[in-house]
Design brief:
125 residues, mainly alpha
Length: 125
């Protein structure tokens, strides 16, 4: 049964990633903004969930399987991020590659930490 929870989350995450990437490619061509958006928002969602779950030790473990493993695992995409950075480097777009690496790493870490902090602060109210 655990695989069904993971699979359901993965289907939702992969489809949302597809939609976000297509939207970003149309509106912001030339920079892999879609991957940045999914990595940052995925880190935020995972941070919110981690912060929320930390305040609720009896949280249903199926929610972890659905959201953290399935949804966030399929929604965020480190492999696409890596491919896009290599593409920028191969095109000698050094500043773009550096900006992509810095933005994905710094913003995703900040989003996770912010989500966890926010969830814990909300739980105290």
């Amino acid at each position: 049964m655990n695989y069904l929870w993971i699979s359901a989350g993965a289907v939702a995450g992969a489809n949302l990633r597809f939609l976000v990437n297509n939207w970003a490619a149309v509106h912001f061509p030339g920079f892999p903004l879609g991957t940045l958006m999914v990595n940052v928002t995925g880190a935020l969602v995972l941070g919110l969930f981690a912060g929320w779950a930390a305040t609720r030790p009896a949280a249903d473990p199926r929610l972890h399987l659905f959201l953290a493993v399935g949804f966030c695992g399929a929604y965020t995409t480190f492999s696409a991020y890596s491919r896009e950075v290599i593409g920028l480097l191969e095109a000698a777009r050094w500043l773009g590659a550096a900006a992509c690496v810095a933005a994905n790493n710094l913003l995703a870490f900040a989003a996770f930490a912010g989500g966890a902090f926010l969830a814990r602060a909300l739980a105290q109210n």
